[in-house]
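Chain A, query sequence.
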Amino acid sequence: EWRFEETGAGPGVVLADSSGNGHTGSTAGYGTISTPGVVGNARLFNGLTDWAEISPSAALSPPSFTCSVWVKLYSYPTTAGWGVVVANYGGNYQGWYLGIHSSGRLIFSVASLPSSAPWLLGTSSLALERWYRVTVTYDGSTRVGAVYLNGAPEATAAFSGFSPQSALSMTFGRASWFAGYFLNAALDQAILYPVARSAGQVL
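Chain A, predicted structure.
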């Protein structure tokens, strides 16, 4: 769990894992700053040169999972067509990521070998400069993934499967597998659970 309460700017700001599991992160690149969040502070990314990363760990790609984060989008990611909110993807059909399309719709991808990394797209377009609670879930037993916006279901579908990755860092605000898909947004109160929460448990 990363609450982004840290007040430092620029690269090298240590981001605490408040869950106690030791998955400490840090800011990277140039430009990231602290900004007022939903609760306390948040972390603002400029969409061009900065991101945050969490050290690689198999615990960040559990067989089933729920990822939830508050997002305030400042511009639509039109340069590359979409941008990353959080990614734990290896660029090789292993891992997962949550992003935002240039249309403002949410993107959720769960990858599996040898060559599957489809998108599950939300239906609503996020307005600029407004906080949203974004949640995605994946159930390894059923292979079903789901996207929620402010607790309301946006999309659900069965994926081909899930091949975890633990070679690369998990990132916020940029792709984990290369220097691209930056996102101009503030992020707050990010959490990753090693279970697929039900629709009734998603807030």
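The first strand starts at residue 14 and ends at 15. The chain has no helices and 15 strands.
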